[in-house]
């Protein structure tokens, strides 16, 4: 049966304009033999991912720095195996891959859903040290896991799914370093798709926007007017609602198992938030408004 190997260690934070789902990237599906490595899925997303995977007959191997939480999930859901680990540590990722292959004999899909979104920062408030740490968490962890997994994925003609963000494509105010890391995830996806196509390995990414998650709820609750915050986030989508974790999970399943002629794809899971015009100037922007002729 299929095997999913997940590492889950989100540092808790949310986007303000596009509250990226820390739960996305639920990848079950895959080939009938799929051993799927899914990295960096947050707690709520873990449960949905694992349920999707187990329901489809998969085994789930996952790692997390939160050992108590990981053990609890392992006990709650049959078909899951927990391995403690930190995705910023190459040795832990090597253990994740080697343990998965040792237990199940193959590896067919890797999903990188790494990430942390720092609080709002003006460019002058950022630091090189903070940027380096964010690169380790949002980009280099994914790169390292992919590099370690590639020999096995080439054997199985497997696939990789990276979880990026809508803001990597359209930008986000007061999020310079975060946007840079997510843009790099998308760019890495496309470059890797070219390199790995000769081995039959597909590489795609999902870029979510506003997904209604516990972290989104936490953010809204911390504002002065939670209802107004939620309404603003909801109205950002032409569809008039936020996405649900299961919808992102379904997209990951599609990319892993059905999208066999897709590689280098960036799939927006945004409800159309990037479409059309909107009010973009901030209250501090010097605005020049045209005047109607008399």
TrEMBL record:
Q: Which InterPro entries match?
A: NAD(P)-bd_dom_sf, Sc_DH/Rdtase_CS, SDR_fam
**Signal peptide region:** none
Name the reaction it catalyses: a secondary alcohol + NADP(+) = a ketone + NADPH + H(+); all-trans-retinol + NADP(+) = all-trans-retinal + NADPH + H(+); 3alpha-hydroxy-5beta-pregnan-20-one + NADP(+) = 5beta-pregnan-3,20-dione + NADPH + H(+); 5beta-dihydrotestosterone + NADPH + H(+) = 5beta-androstane-3alpha,17beta-diol + NADP(+)
| EC number from the UniProt entry | 1.1.1.184, 1.1.1.300
Q: What GO CC terms are in its UniProt record?
A: cytosol; peroxisome
Q: Where in the cell is it found?
A: Peroxisome
GO terms for MF: all-trans-retinol dehydrogenase (NADP+) activity; carbonyl reductase (NADPH) activity; D-threo-aldose 1-dehydrogenase activity; identical protein binding
Keywords for the protein's UniProt record, in alphabetical order: NAD, Oxidoreductase, Peroxisome
Among the record's GO biological process terms, what is one?
Answer: L-fucose catabolic process
Q: Which family does it belong to?
A: Belongs to the short-chain dehydrogenases/reductases (SDR) family.
What does the protein in this record do? NADPH-dependent oxidoreductase which catalyzes the reduction of a variety of compounds bearing carbonyl groups including ketosteroids, alpha-dicarbonyl compounds, aldehydes, aromatic ketones and quinones. Reduces all-trans-retinal and 9-cis retinal. Reduces 3-ketosteroids and benzil into 3alpha-hydroxysteroids and S-benzoin, respectively, in contrast to the stereoselectivity of primates DHRS4s which produce 3beta-hydroxysteroids and R-benzoin. In the reverse reaction, catalyzes the NADP-dependent oxidation of 3alpha-hydroxysteroids and alcohol, but with much lower efficiency.
Provide the protein name: Dehydrogenase/reductase SDR family member 4
- Gene name of this polypeptide: Hsd17b14
């Amino acid at each position: 049966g299929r095997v999913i190997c997940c590492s889950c260690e989100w540092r808790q934070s949310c986007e303000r304009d596009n509250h990226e789902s820390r739960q996305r990237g639920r990848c079950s599906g895959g080939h009938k033999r799929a051993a799927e490595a899914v990295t960096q899925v947050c707690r709520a997303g873990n449960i949905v991912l694992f349920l999707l995977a187990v329901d489809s007959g998969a085994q789930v191997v996952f790692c997390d720095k939160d050992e108590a939480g990981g053990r609890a999930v392992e006990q709650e859901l049959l078909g899951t195996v927990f391995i403690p680990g930190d995705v910023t540590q190459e040795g832990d990722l090597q253990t994740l891959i080697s343990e998965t292959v040792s237990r199940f004999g193959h590896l067919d899909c890797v999903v990188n859903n790494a990430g942390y979104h720092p609080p709002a920062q003006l460019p002058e408030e950022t630091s090189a040290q903070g940027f380096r740490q964010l690169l380790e968490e949002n980009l280099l962890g994914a790169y390292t896991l992919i590099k370690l997994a590639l020999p096995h994925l080439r054997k199985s003609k497997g696939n990789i799914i990276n979880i990026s963000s809508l803001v990597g494509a359209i930008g986000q105010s007061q999020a310079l370093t975060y946007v840079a890391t997510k843009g790099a995830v998308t760019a890495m996806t496309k470059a890797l798709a070219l390199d790995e196509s000769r081995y039959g390995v597909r590489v795609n990414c999902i870029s979510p926007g506003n997904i209604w998650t516990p972290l989104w709820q936490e953010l809204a609750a911390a504002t002065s007017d939670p209802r107004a915050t939620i309404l603003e986030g909801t109205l950002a989508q032409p569809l008039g609602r936020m996405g649900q974790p299961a919808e992102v999970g379904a997209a990951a399943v599609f990319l892993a198992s059905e999208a066999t002629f897709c590689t280098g794809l960036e799939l927006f899971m945004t409800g159309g938030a990037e479409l059309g015009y909107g009010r973009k100037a901030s209250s501090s922007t010097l605005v020049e408004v045209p005047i109607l002729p008399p």
